[in-house]
Amino acid sequence: MTAVTVPFLDLARAAAEQREILETALLACVRRGRYVLGEEVFAFEREWAAFCESPFAASCASGTDAITLALRALGVGSGDEVLTVSMTCAPTAVGILRAGATPVFVDVDSDRLTMDPSRLDAAVTRRTKAIVPVHLYGRLADMAGIAAFAKSKGFLLVEDCAQAHGATLGGRPAGSFGDAAAWSFYPTKNLGALGDGGAVTTGRSEVAERVRRLRVYGYSTRNDAGEAGFNSRLDEVQAAALRVRLSRLAEGNARRARIAARYDAALAACVRTPPPARAGETPAYHLYVARIRGRESFRERLAAAGVGTDVHYPRAVHEQAAFASLPRGPLPETERAAREVVSLPLYPQLTDDEAGRVIEAVRSAR
C-alpha cells in the first residue's frame, strides 16, 4: 500500500510554526516556578472569556471535566436525567455520568447531525433536569429550537462546545445560548493545548465560583472543603501554550474555512458533503465530514492514493458496551450516520497542494 503522504492531521506542523514563541512562553513558566493556578491560568481565563463574549471562564483539566463541573455547579446530580445525543464522543456521556446524572439519548437531524429539537419532548420524564446539546464538527446545533424548549420546560442548558471554538450563529458565539458551556482544549481541537485542558464559560457568577471551588476538592478556603469536589486544574504550562495559540485561532479558523469551501465546490458531485452554512452562521470547521456508503473501501482507496482519513465516530455512544444500558429513544439518524461518516484532512497547516491531492483522490475513489 502507498505510504500516506497527506496525513489526516499533523500536530507537529503547528508546533513547528509556533516553536520560538511557545518555547519562550513555556520557559517563562519554568523560571517562575509556579505550575498550577498561577498568573498564566488566570490570564488565559480572562482572555478566553473575552473571546467567547462570556462574563466568566473557569478552566479545568479536560473537556470531560468541564461537562461534569458545569452540571454539578448548576445543581445537577444523582437522580437527574440529562437529554443529550449519541452522535458524539464518549466524553459527553462520561461527563454527565460523573456528575451523578443519567444521560438520555435523543436523535439528531439528518444534515448537521446535531440534536433534533423535535425529538426532545418524547424523551422528557419527571427526572429530566438539563439538556446538553453537542456542537458537532464545528457546526452549532439548532440553538433557537433547543433553547426555546429548555426555557418552556424550565430545564438547564449546558452546551458541549468541544468542537466549536470560534463558531457563531446569528451573531452569537458558541457557548452563549445556555446556562453554561463546556470546552475542551485537547491537542486536536481548533484551540488545542500541548496536553489536556478544559474550561467552563457562563454568564452566572455563582456558577463560575462554584466551578472554581469544585475544581480544587471543593475548597472554599485552603484545606476547608464545603463539599466534595475534584482535582481538575489547568496547569500553567498548558495555559501559556493556549494563550499563544488563542492569538492565532481566528486566522486558523479562516484557513479551515477556505479549505472547506474548496472541498465543497470540488466534491459535491461525488460525495455527500457537509450542509452549507445557515444564514448568519460561521462554522468553526473543526472537521470536514463527508458521508459515504461503502466507507471502508472508500478509505482504503484514499489510503492507496496516499491520503489519510479518520471516522468521527464509527460507533455511536449508545452502541458502546459501557453505555448500552442507558435510556434512549429511536436513533435512526444517529445509527445511519455512524455507518457513513468519514473525515477528510482539514487543518490550517494543510497546504493547497495537499488539499488538491485530497480532492483528486476522492474523485478517483468515487
What class, by secondary structure content? alpha/beta
Strand content: 5-15%
Mean of residue pLDDT? 97
N-to-C SSE string, H for helix and E for strand: HHHEHEHEHEHEEEEEHEEHHEEHHEH
Specify the CATH class of the largest domain.
Alpha Beta
Query: How many helices in DSSP terms?
Result: 13
Q: Radius of gyration over alpha carbons?
A: 20 Å
Describe what is shown at a glance.
By secondary structure, the protein is α/β, with parallel strands linked by helices.
Topology diagram in text:
Layout: H1 11-17, H2 19-32, H3 39-51, E1 56-60, H4 63-73, E2 81-85, H5 91-98, E3 102-106, H6 120-123, E4 128-131, H7 143-153, E5 156-160, E6 168-169, E7 172-173, E8 180-184, E9 198-202, H8 205-214, E10 219-221, E11 224-225, H9 236-246, H10 249-267, E12 281-282, E13 288-291, H11 295-304, H12 332-340, E14 341-344, H13 352-365
Parallel strand pairs: 2-3, 2-4, 4-5, 5-8
Antiparallel strand pairs: 1-9, 6-7, 6-12, 8-9, 10-11, 13-14
Helix pairs in contact: 2-9, 3-9, 4-5, 4-8, 10-13
How would you portray this structure in words?
This protein has 366 residues and is an alpha/beta fold. The chain has two domains: 13-105 and 113-246, 3-Layer(aba) Sandwich (Aspartate Aminotransferase, domain 2), CATH 3.40.640; 249-365, Aspartate Aminotransferase, domain 1, CATH 3.90.1150.10. The chain is built from 13 helices and 14 strands. The strands form four sheets. A seven-stranded mixed sheet has the order 1-9-8-5-4-2-3, with helices on both faces. Strand 2, helix 5 (91-98) and strand 3 form a beta-alpha-beta unit. The longest helix is centred in the C-terminal third of the chain and has 19 residues, at 249-267.
